[in-house]
């Protein structure tokens, strides 16, 4: 049964309104999108002389943790997670399209832009290195190699490039795709990588020689563009290698690895990276593009896919006929990014809709359940999110960084409600 995730938007500067000393009552607003054509505005009155807030009869608004607020409006609960650090204040203005981080030796960040530039930043977001015009088109994805000393980029210019973090040198360029390269997955230590493209292919590369080892295509339509891929290791017999081909001497760490791909048609395919077989195909349930997908890192049987029409689907790869759960977010507005980290799903949709959905272990259903009834909205100023990246901490769920257009780069603390 299709579930609706009710979207709420809070006034961006509401924290300042709450924290100011008021001689007279002040106010801020929360808008709840009841449906595509109906938005209800809720006025939250901040009472004078620190006497609390008035959210209206039957409603409530309170701070429950550091940067985390809870609103109860018309019987529905909404959580709002505010920015811990606005990183854009230390960055040169740009439209950011890609982000990644590494913890090796020291924390670093890398950002990609619409202009094809790459920035490498230290832990305080100070610029360490900028590679201007690294590509002649928009950067679509950036990944640090496990060593932390190199990174790989993909672009609309149909190329992938490997870069030295230390000196910005480009020792290898991977050429072969015939359209925008949309996504990257690094296998083990990075001797091999996978890349996806709108030309309908997923290429397995050997980085040392810039050689394509194998090209994967969807059997039924080899030109069905690939928007997103995710790599995972097999967990059950059904994912075991169908055959055992002669191992290529340029192939490392592919045994037991599988790549899942979201296609322009809306179909989702799974390939055994070692045997090179297409093993599973999930149907185009919503007859529109599968824009983005993520694998549940706690249980690789489950995949979350975001679609052009605003649908979010949870699939069980053991039962590929139909999704096990469906959620509608901003009907008709494309879901642009789905990202799994810290036991939660991060979803971006259109302007100013960035949501954290907790994934809950439910013994009754015997599967991970999406906690859609109390979503957490990551508060921004009408910003369009391109990508997420998780920053783990030993003592907490960590932080997440979001990047997007109009110089949007923000860090959020992942508080527990």
From TrEMBL:
GO CC aspect terms: proteasome complex
WD repeat locations: 132-173, 174-215
Pfam family, one: WD40
Lineage summary: Eukaryota, Fungi, Dikarya, Ascomycota, Saccharomycotina
Protein name, as recorded: Rpn14p
Keywords: Proteasome, Repeat, WD repeat
Source species of the chain: Saccharomyces paradoxus
Protein family membership: Belongs to the WD repeat PAAF1/RPN14 family.
SMART domains with a match to the protein in the record: WD40
């Amino acid at each position: 049964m299709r579930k609706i995730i009710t979207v709420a938007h809070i006034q961006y500067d509401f924290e300042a309104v709450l924290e100011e000393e008021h001689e007279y009552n002040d106010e801020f607003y929360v808008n709840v999108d009841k449906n595509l054509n109906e938005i209800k505005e809720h006025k939250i009155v901040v009472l004078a002389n620190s006497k609390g807030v008035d959210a209206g009869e039957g409603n409530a608004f309170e701070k429950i943790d550091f940067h985390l607020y809870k609103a109860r409006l018309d019987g529905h609960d909404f959580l709002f997670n505010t920015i811990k650090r606005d990183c854009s204040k230390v960055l040169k203005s740009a439209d950011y399209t890609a982000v990644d981080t590494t913890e090796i030796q020291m924390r670093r960040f890398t950002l990609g832009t619409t202009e094809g530039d790459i920035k490498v930043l230290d832990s305080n977001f100070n610029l360490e290195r900028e590679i201007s015009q690294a590509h002649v088109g928009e950067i679509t994805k950036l990944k640090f190699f496990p060593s932390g000393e190199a990174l790989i980029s993909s672009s609309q210019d149909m190329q992938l490039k490997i870069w030295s973090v230390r000196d910005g040198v480009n020792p290898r360029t991977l050429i072969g795709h015939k359209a925008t390269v949309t996504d990257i997955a690094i296998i083990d230590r990075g001797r091999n990588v996978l890349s996806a493209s709108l030309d309908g292919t997923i290429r397995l590369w050997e980085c040392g020689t810039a050689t394509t080892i194998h090209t994967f295509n969807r059997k039924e339509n080899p030109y069905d563009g690939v928007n997103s891929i995710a790599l995972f290791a097999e967990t059950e017999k059904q994912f075991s290698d169908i055959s055992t081909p002669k191992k290529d001497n340029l192939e490392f760490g592919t045994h037991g690895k599988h790549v899942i791909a979201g296609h322009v048609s809306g179909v989702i395919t799974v390939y055994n990276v070692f045997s090179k077989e297409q093993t599973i195909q999930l149907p185009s349930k919503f007859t529109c593009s599968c824009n983005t997908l993520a694998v549940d890192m706690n249980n690789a049987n489950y995949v979350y896919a975001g679609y052009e029409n605003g649908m979010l689907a949870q699939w069980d790869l053991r039962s590929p006929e139909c999704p096990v759960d469906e959620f509608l977010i901003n009907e008709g507005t494309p879901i642009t990014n789905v990202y799994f980290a810290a036991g939660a799903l991060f979803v971006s949709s259109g302007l100013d809709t960035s949501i954290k959905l907790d994934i809950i272990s439910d013994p009754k259903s015997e599967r991970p359940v999406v906690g859609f009834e109390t979503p957490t909205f990551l508060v921004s100023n009408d910003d369009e999110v391109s990508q997420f990246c998780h920053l783990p901490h030993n003592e907490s769920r960590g932080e997440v960084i979001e990047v997007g257009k109009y110089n949007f780069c923000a860090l959020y603390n992942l508080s527990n409600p």
